[in-house]
Amino acid sequence: MKRAPLEIADVIMITPHLIADSRGYFSEVFKAAWFNEHIADAVFLQDNQSLSAQAGTIRGLHFQMEPFAQGKLVRAIAGRLFDVAVDLRGGSPTYGKWVGVELSADNGKQLWIPPGFAHGFATLEPNSIIHYKVTAPYSAAHDRGIRWNDPAIGVEWPVSSEAALLSDKDRQQPFLGQSPYYFHYRSLKQEA
Question: What angle do CA 36, 37, 43 make, to 5 degrees?
Fold first, then answer.
């Protein structure tokens, strides 16, 4: 596996090694010992998967508050998606900044998004399936979000506002400036 830090260094792209021949391919997509040594000391408690039937579906920007803050290891197992992480760690030098990458079944890339970040994605093909491992279980009481098209964040989505397919919940999320600091950079760094 290869690792590549992105513009926000704590968000890391992982590219598993692929062994291919005339029959197809084999790939180790997750190894706990390698992940803990090269990415983060994390324990994954749950795997999630969602299908978006139409291209242009946007889900996010979502996160959970402590004590259910989630680190996520994200990959596409069908189709293509534009995956986004937004730094919500108060005091971070990259607070309010975002990174985005294309994940697809073809490229096999994965994205590690640590706790303290909001996560969202836009589907680029019909019937795209996202699969992600999380470090904490879902808690409705701790579920929060930030407006997907907040101009203060400025995510450059590959889907126009008019064409985006969103849930009512995601259309009504607060803007970053309306939200308290849910995470603090120093305390998260000290725990790592």
Answer: 5
Pick the catalytic residue: 17, 25, 38, 62?
A: 62
- State the Cα–Cα distance between residues 172 and 188, nearest whole angstrom: 28
To the nearest whole percent, how much of the chain has pLDDT over 90?
A: 92
In what side-by-side order are the strands of the sheet with 143-145?
98-104, 80-87, 117-123, 58-64, 143-145
Catalytic site residue 185? no
This prediction has a pTM of 0.93
**Angle ∠(127,107,117) on CA atoms, nearest 5:** 80
Please give the domain boundaries of the chain with CATH numbers for all domains. Answer: 2-16+30-191 (2.60.120.10)
Task: Please provide the DSSP assignment of 108-136 as one string.
Answer: --EEEE-TTEEEEEEESSTTEEEEEEESS
Helix (H, G, I), strand (E, B) or coil at 185: helix
pLDDT band at 186 (very low <50, low <70, confident <90, very high): confident
Annotated catalytic residue 132: yes
